[in-house]
Amino acid sequence: MTPESGPVLRARRRRATGTVVDFDGRRLSLARRLRRLQRTTLAAKTTVTAAAITQFERGTARPTNAVVAELALALGVPTDFFRQGRPIEQVPASAAHFRSLRATPAIARDQALAFAEIALAVVDVLEQYVDLPTVTDIVEPVDGEPTSDQVATIAANTRKRLGVEPGPVPHVVRLLEAHGIVVLRLLSDVDPRVDAFSTEIGHRPLVLLSPAKDDRARSRFDAAHELGHLVMHQDVEPGSKIIESQAHQFASEFLAPTAELEPDLPRKVDWDLLLQAKTKWGISLAALAYRAHSIGLWSEHSYRRANQHLAVQGYPEPGPLGPPESPYLLGAATALLSDAGTTLDHLAAASRLTIDQINGVVTAGSETKPRLRVTVTPQP
Known about the structure:
Blueprint (H helix, E strand, L loop, with lengths): L5 H11 L8 H10 L4 H6 L5 H9 L6 H11 L20 E3 L7 H21 L21 H14 L10 H7 L3 E4 L11 E3 L6 E4 L6 H17 L8 H15 L2 H4 L9 H11 L3 H10 L5 H14 L15 H11 L4 H8 L3 H10 L16
Parallel strand pairs: 2-4
Antiparallel strand pairs: 1-3, 3-4
Helix pairs in contact: 2-4, 2-6, 6-17, 7-10, 9-10, 13-14
GO molecular function: DNA binding
InterPro entries: Cro/C1-type_HTH (IPR001387), IrrE_HExxH (IPR010359), Lambda_DNA-bd_dom_sf (IPR010982), Rad_response_metalloprotease (IPR052345)
Protein name: XRE family transcriptional regulator
């Protein structure tokens, strides 16, 4: 009798533990991408092959209980996470407006998309308990390549739809949340090359901002930029320079309509006046210099000289505006639920998500508070 090889014995032992009939391959893919693991890397942490993991994720094969235990250990989730629960919406790269697809490694992009999927699942279960703001109809798709004036008109129309009064937008992130758009900061362990992005694949729009941009002006512009995508770029293939330029134009006009901003811009490079405009409008000096040049107030020479000055100053710019704008909606919603006796444990049980996953999303959608350090001087 020929003795069986090690792999054959291991496979026989796995089969003896029984197959998980309600295994959800989408959840395996989700947990793997959140950990930034390739299938081959995950396979090396278990006793199955990368091909088997592909089959599990696609639903063409089911793992045994023993294999599920290995996968759970390797991915840091409980085994119950892989069992079918509330559906989790997939967010493909083709439905997410990343600032630059070419500059974003695929594995980092997949991690960010996985976080967006978890976020939509958390929002979905939250809405079983609490009414979030209704989504305002803001869609105004562009036709072909609109002119700068047409984009400015769309931005003005959007301001009206969102009830923005003339003048600066007080808080861009809170404005989006008030109109049903979920805004989150990306996880701190997401590759910093993943910039802000947005998607409308779920039942409500989702905007994710980079935690690496510790600047109020930049956070406001990023939020307005992603709003531009949600307004103009329905069913448009993301990633092209053309639509990114359109979103930039939209953000500029949405934050500061040219007719209102122009009186606050100096006719020559004057940093005191520019700092005053920065404080009023919540726009960076670099953006103000660009606007002064684009609307014809500054010559090419003046604009180039201003950029050289800013390059010498370095980052952060002079005239800080304070910390980035922070989301509020999900933190407020879970606080209401907690007051009513519904905890994150209840949400985890209802969604089959982990406490860590839910807490990560809620934290990403909550107001950040300044961290104060208390020091104690020992008595002599």
